Batch of 3 targets.
Target 1
Amino acid sequence: METRLHEAEVSLGESPLWPTAAMIAAAVLYVDLPTRFIAGNSAGAFSVVRWVVPALTAVLLAALVLSVPHGRLMRSLEWGGQKLRVTRRWLTIGLIGILSAANGASIILLVHLLVNGASANAPVLLRAAVHMWVVNVLLFALWFWQLDGGGPLARPACAPHERDFLFPQQTEPSLLVGGWEAKFLDYLFVSFTNSSAFSPTDALPLSRWAKMLMLVQSAISLSLAVMVVARAVNILK
């Protein structure tokens, strides 16, 4: 197990534990959402929909674990380094995309229920909103981490003008000489502050896609804060 973890860390350029933990946490929080925010009022579909996302998450995570470079399976298949890197990258992006689609559907369902005056008690609304907000933070952190500078594998060799985010450490020559590189936890901090302050507070987005991604994240967080909290306060009154 230690050998496999070391191989994964070497191939990724950083420990895979934090990104993996973020994916698992997002799937678990989705499963724990109140029923109506996963399948609406359809009790029949609920039992299927609730477990589709975690099942796909488990399958794709297993594929990522089994496809660790220099592992037995990959040596037996004789996959080339470039082919393996592309495959693992698309598996990761596909997994993040599935979780994002599931959380997005829950947020849309939540907004729809609120706009149409569906009855719900304050604790359920607040619990659902907190779940969705945390998942939102985790997923956008994963998107930033996976897309900035071509992803964690390509990022170290990325030229300054090709970066999508500019971290404060990258403007400090003494830190750059020491080999500072952005890791997943740096993107998690960016995602958290963007969801909390609705604006960049640490790293600055440079590319247009990074700006649009941060805009979408802020809009989602603002919608959850305004609509859900306002409705919950109204119910509490």
Target 2
Amino acid sequence: MAVQVLTVLAYKAGEPVTSSLLAASVNTNPVVIRRLLLVLQTAGFVETRKGASVGSRLRLPPQRIDLAQIYRAVETSEPFKLPQRNPKNPCAVGHCIQAALVQVFAATETALERELAKTSLAHILGLVEKSCGQNRKTPH
């Protein structure tokens, strides 16, 4: 959802975008978008104004934002989570699996972030424009 919201802001090229328009694009409630915008604002990607120039816009050029940065800003839970319960029976696998998986999961998350870092928001915007045409009207 964060990538889509930021792509809409990039698509609108500096025009302030309301949470209602963003919510329509994502097909969710504007309250959900406003909460997400607060997270994106804290991360330094978005600025939001109230009053005459109501709406949000990107603070950075889309080529300076990559998907790994967005991922780190919005993901609060571990993507690969270990079971919290200890095995009930004295099972060798049950007692050792977590230590084995910790290494695999850490390497997997590192690889995920490395791959996401290769893709900028500008690249996503380019793919969207290529797929949908380059006319800059309402993105939904």
Target 3
Amino acid sequence: MRKIFYLGIIIIIGSILSSCATAPIKPPVYLPKEIYPQPTGLVSRHDVFHIVAPGETLWRISKMYDVPMQNILQANSLKNKAELEKGQRLLVPNAAPIVPVISLYPSRKWKYIIIHHSATDEGSSLYFDKYHYSKGWEGLGYHFVITNGTKGKQDGQIEVSPRWLKQEYGSHCKASGMNNRAIGICLVGNFNTEEVSKKQLDALVYLVGLLRKHYRIPLTKILGHSQVYEAKTDCPGKKFPWRELKSRLIQ
């Protein structure tokens, strides 16, 4: 009886070990590389009000202004960081000048960068998010928005879309299947009638420089919406400074 008992235990243990050996192995989780410039030297700090954009978290906002998350929670009488909502107005105490927080993910699907203009006088990621929802889209169609100093945002401020944070395909250029393989960047403004501001162009050079280096995107694949085959548009406008942008990107 003892032999039968021990044999049964050995069989059970063997079956458990074999089932563990054949269990599916979860793929590794690749965390993004977060790029955000650090304040250097003496910087002017003061309290600011920040309007929460789509996809923004307390961590991201704290890095944007170089302010500890706990300080922002206390200043707004919030109990936890999960309470943030799109459009919420936050007091950021003792904030440094705002900097962009750009997430760079390991991915091989991004082959192009497509540049757009909003063809509007004002805008922000929150503003476009509401508009795109009204058209039946799943929120903001671009991956990045570069603002022009309207809708409570600074001139040249880089806003990161939830589509980029989730590494989702865009909804900004259907022609030639670019939604599935191109990073979409929208500059607020109508560049058929006005010039791109210096701060917007500086921000675009910085952002495109980071993206093209990380994803190895050649200059020939940095296009305006109108330059995509079969795209019927004049976006990003007749006054868009292509020559200056390309010359600065190769420096």
